[in-house]
Amino acid sequence: MPPSTSEPPNPGQLSPLPGVHRHITTHDSNGKAVFHSSEPGDWTTYSPSMAFDIIYTTSTSPPNMNNDRDISDHEAVRNSGKLGLVNPGGSVCRIVDFGPSSSEEPAKGIMHRTQSLDYGIVLEGEIECVLDSGEKRVMRRGDVAVQRGTMHEWRNTSTTEWVRMIFVLLDGEKIQIAGQELGEDLSAGGEEVAKALKSQS
To answer: Per the count of CB atoms within 10 A, which of 79, 110, 118, 135 is most buried?
Structure first.
C-alpha cells in the first residue's frame, strides 16, 4: 500500500516513508490556543532496518500543563540522556520505522517486555506482532495493539516495504502472576535498543 502523502523524508531519516512533523500547542496570556512549536522529526538509527523518533514525553501522571511545565519536563528528559523505552512515572510517544526483511533470512524482531501499558498503532505497511507463547497477529494500517506488560516482538515480513508504527507507553506497576514478578525484560536484545534511545535523548 503506498504512503498516504508525498511529504519528503525528514533530514537524517532512515526510511523512504513520508517525513513527520510535531506540532505542540499551548495558551497565550488570554487563554486562547496557540502553537508553541512545530518541528520536523528527529530520528535516531538503531540498525540498518530500525529507527526511532521521540515525539513527546511526560514525567508525571496526570501531567502538569500549567505554565508549560510539561514542555519543560519533556525538554529536560530529552536532554538528560537517560530516557529508555519507558519514562518512569510518565509516558512516551514514539514513532518507529521497521525496514524490510532480508530475502535470505526470515523476519525476526526483538522479544522484550516493558513495564508499561502500550498502545501500538500501524501508520504504514503490515507487521506481525508475535508473543512469547507463539501466538501472532498480522497488523495493517489503522490496526492497534494494546500491550499490557507482555513479552512480544515486531516482525516486518515484507522484503520490499517499510513499516511505520506510533507507540504510546504509559509507565505501569509490575505484574504478579502465580507469585512471579514480571518486570521489564530486555535480555533478548532490547537493552541495545534502550541504549540507542538514550543516545537520542
So the answer is: 118
Which pLDDT score is estimated for 31?
Answer: 97
Q: Tell me the per-residue pLDDT of 23-69, one tens digit each, with 9 for 90 and over.
A: 999 999 999 999 999 999 999 999 999 999 999 999 999 999 999 99
Alpha-carbon gap, residue 109 to 130, rounded angstroms: 9
Distance, in Å, from the CA atom of 44 to the CA atom of 171, rounded to the nearest integer, reads 22
Nearest partner of 39 among 52, 15, 23, 17, judged by Cα: 23
164: nearest Cα among 187, 136, 143: 143
Q: Which residues contact 18 (CB under 8 A, 6 or more apart)?
A: 3, 4, 5, 6, 7, 8, 9
Specify whether the CB–CB gap between 96 and 109 falls below 8 A: no
C-alpha grid cell for residue 135?
A: 501466538
User: Counting Cβ atoms within 10 Å, is residue 41 exposed (0-12), middle (13-18) or buried (19+)?
Assistant: buried
- Measured CA distances, 77 to 16, 59, 63, 74, 168 (Å): 28, 8, 14, 5, 16
3-state helix, strand, coil in the chain (%, to 5): 15, 40, 45
Is the pTM for the entire model greater than 0.85? yes
C-alpha 28 chain-centroid distance? 30
pLDDT for the residue 7: 86
